[in-house]
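Budget justification aside, the reviewers requested a transparent look at the raw inputs and outputs of the sequence design task funded under Objective 1. We therefore reproduce one unedited record. The lines immediately below are the structure tokens for a 221-residue chain.
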């Protein structure tokens, strides 16, 4: 609370050698070199008086210390001044994307060690780059008693993470999200051309369209 240029410089200088320092949501502090203040900060005595130049000097000025790792996080890198993230101040930029298939599988195994087959099945039943790691973690915590139940209820996970309002997708795009695009032509032949058409269809009717589908429980889910 009430952090100043001298204060942030002192904190960074006093950090132990080989320590890790994290500045979270740095975009919320400075926009175009101007410190931002949230509503009510002044009333609580929590406003910051750190200037942009003060932050830069604290990070790598004459009095800055070496032997520490500094991490800065942001949800809006486009808002950051280039001077803050230039090489020398920010040597590595890493984008933390939404979960890939590989990440889904590996996280599944963290919660259910040894369940390699179910981990692959879980990852194959979900779209890549649509779910956050936090969303997956929350889902696993609800299914800690059964790896199989975790796999069986992936449709609930997709439903809960679907953006609102939902947009209509072609049946091919909808099925491609979960690796089932091989059934797209079959469903289009039977006039199911969008995800909404599929949502309105009955499973018993769909099973009559394809023998392969009758013996594909993952696709049925």
């Amino acid at each position: 609370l009430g952090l100043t240029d001298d204060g942030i410089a002192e904190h960074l200088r006093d950090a132990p050698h080989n320590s890790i320092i994290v500045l979270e949501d740095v975009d919320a502090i400075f926009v175009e070199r101007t410190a931002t203040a949230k509503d009510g900060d002044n009333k609580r005595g929590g406003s910051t008086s750190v200037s942009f130049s003060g932050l830069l000097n604290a990070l790598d000025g004459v009095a800055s210390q070496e032997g520490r790792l500094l991490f800065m996080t942001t949800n809006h890198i486009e808002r950051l001044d280039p001077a803050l993230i230039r090489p020398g101040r920010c040597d590595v930029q890493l984008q933390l994307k939404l979960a890939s298939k590989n990440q889904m599988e590996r996280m599944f195994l963290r919660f259910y060690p040894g369940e390699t087959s179910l981990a692959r099945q879980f990852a194959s039943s979900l779209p890549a780059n649509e779910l956050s790691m936090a969303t997956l973690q929350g889902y696993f915590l609800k299914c800690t008693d059964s790896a199989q139940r975790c796999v069986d209820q992936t449709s609930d996970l997709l439903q809960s993470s679907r953006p609102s309002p939902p947009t209509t997708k072609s049946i091919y795009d909808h099925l491609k999200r979960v690796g089932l695009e091989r059934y797209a032509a079959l469903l289009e032949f039977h006039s199911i051309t969008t995800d909404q058409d599929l949502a309105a269809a009955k499973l018993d009717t769909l099973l009559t369209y394809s023998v392969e589908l009758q013996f594909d429980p993952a696709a049925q889910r």
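The two ends are 52 Å apart (CA to CA). The chain is about 45% helix and 5% strand. Computational costs for records of this kind are itemized in the attached budget.
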